[in-house]
Amino acid sequence: MNTNIEGREKVMYALTKIRGVGRRFANMVCKKADVDMSKRAGELSAQELENLVVIINNPLQFKIPDWFLNRKKDHKDGKNSQVTANNLDQKLREDLERLKKIR
């Protein structure tokens, strides 16, 4: 995801350093990945870290509801998704270009 997170912070709050991931979404991801909320981000095992990344990239496969995602009914493909990191900037740029064409 191209983002370094602070290892001294609790897992949920460390995940919020990733653009597109808020506190509530980070909380939901930690619960779905069965990660202990009291752990620090630097204490995570490789398997726990991999689980978190997979769930953040594919939230619908892990039964996170559509209304919880930050990109509902995309204009190009009509799908719901959670957009993070560099993809968030790309989608914002695409939306602004689309809106400029409307004007």
Characterization of the model:
There is one protein chain. The chain has 103 residues and is mainly α. 44% of the residues lie in helices and 0% in strands. The model has no long low-confidence stretch (mean pLDDT 85). The longest helix is centred in the last third of the chain and has 18 residues, at 85-102. It has helices at residues 11-15, 23-32, 46-57, 85-102.
Overall radius of gyration: 15 Å
Give the termini separation. Answer: 34 Å
Helix content: 40-55%
Number of helices: 4
Secondary structure tally: strands = 0
Overall spatial form:
elongated
Q: Please give the largest β-sheet.
A: none
Low-confidence stretches: none
Strand content: under 5%
Mean pLDDT: 85
Structural class: mainly alpha
Topology as a string of helices (H) and strands (E): HHHH
